[in-house]
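QA checklist item 7 of 12: single-chain prediction sanity check.
[x] sequence parsed
[x] length recorded as 66
[x] structure emitted
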Amino acid sequence: MHSAAVLQEAQKLHNVSDRLESLADLHPVVSEALLSISGNIRHIAAILEVLVVTKMGPIEPGPANA
């Protein structure tokens, strides 16, 4: 998997985290659990981004990076 593809997956995880935070506002009964899960997903996304920077080298040019 190329670095740009990993970064796209990390962005998708950030989006999932954002959606879970929104759901937490709408569902107070499970809001604490949703916020916890959201935070964990956000941390995983950040780890993926660090992995790309430290282990996979420079981002390859693509349509979004050109």
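[x] summary fact logged: The chain has one domain: 3-56.
[ ] second reviewer sign-off
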